[in-house]
Design a protein that fits this description.
Blueprint: H1 3-8, H2 15-32, H3 35-58, H4 66-89, H5 94-99, H6 101-105, H7 112-145, H8 148-182, H9 186-214, H10 221-228, H11 232-243, H12 265-289
Helix pairs in contact: 2-7, 3-4, 3-7, 4-8, 4-9, 4-11, 7-8, 8-9, 8-11, 8-12, 11-12
Length: 292
């Protein structure tokens, strides 16, 4: 049964019922096409490899420092999670336009924000489950195999990693919606989002570091660190860096200077939520202005 048929057969539905119906449909679609299990498997293999593969070289099971393990996971996740969220959401609206189903859906008694929130809830649940299973299983294994003195730090570290991973994924889902609403072809939406992913995940840091080196005598270091936090991928790395302080040089990243800004974890989580709320309103505004 299609999403339109479900909505048409429900009579006068409440906003919550409409949103949950759309969310359930999106979730079932990704469950049916195995996208959820594929993303979960990628994150699980990634976390297991970072946590245990290094000890395989020595021929014995060696537990790394929790901060070192988490630093490696964050470094790789900052590329994989946004890419996964983009691939999940890039055709959410432009694909519906090309198929003609978006116009059909809007003939039923639902507001555009119902459709936006329903898709966001469904896709958000997909990424949340993938992050919880992918990182949670590895965290549980490390707790069971680790010493009692590091178990608390492992639980805390993986909790922050999972929460921040979900929030980062939600931001890139909304970026995918935004681009999907602004273009008329799926290929164009995917191309723009891949460029955006490349810029935010890699180029942004390189440009800022170049500027910092070139203008070291002029640029305020704290201002530089705050500018980094306006990039959600760097915010993700900074949050996990501060949540899991490392004593070893191996576990530290080039973003260690962010800790000097004095921003705590609550404020960083608030910045994540601010990104999500802002992008959600932007998507709603663009969707509301469009003529389908």
């Amino acid at each position: 049964m299609s999403q339109a048929e479900v909505l048409s057969g429900g009579g006068h539905l409440s906003a919550l019922s409409i949103i949950s119906t759309i969310a359930a449909k999106e979730f079932k679609d990704n469950l049916r096409n195995r996208w959820l299990w594929m993303m979960t498997a990628i994150l699980l293999l990634l976390s297991l490899s970072v946590s245990f593969m290094g000890s395989a070289i020595s021929g014995s099971l060696t537990m790394f420092e929790p901060a070192q393990t988490l630093s490696g996971l964050v470094t790789l996740s900052v590329f994989i999670l946004p890419l996964g969220a983009i691939l999940l959401s890039y055709d959410s609206f432009v694909g519906e336009k090309e198929a003609g189903t978006l116009l059909l859906l809007l003939t039923y008694p639902l507001a555009r924000w119902h459709l936006l929130c329903g898709k966001f809830l469904g896709h958000g649940c997909v990424m949340a489950i993938a992050c919880i299973l992918g990182f949670g299983v590895t965290g549980l294994m490390l707790v069971l195999l680790g010493d009692a003195k590091v178990q608390l730090s492992i639980v805390s570290g993986f909790t922050h990693l999972i929460l921040s991973s979900i929030l980062l994924s939600l931001i890139f889902i909304l970026l995918g919606y935004w681009v999907s609403l602004c273009v008329r072809e799926k290929a164009k939406a995917l191309g723009i989002l891949l460029i955006l992913w490349f810029v935010l995940a890699l180029i942004y840091d390189l440009v800022l570091l170049t500027v910092l080196v070139a203008m070291a005598d002029i640029l305020n270091r704290e201002l530089f660190n705050i500018v980094i936090l306006f990039n959600p991928t760097d915010l993700f790395r900074a949050l996990n860096l501060i949540a899991n302080p490392a004593d070893t040089l191996v576990a530290k990243s080039s973003l260690t200077l962010i800790a000097q800004t004095g921003l705590g974890l609550p404020l960083m989580y608030c910045l994540f939520v601010g990104w999500i709320i802002g992008l959600l309103f932007c998507c709603h505004w663009v969707f509301k202005q469009q003529e389908i």
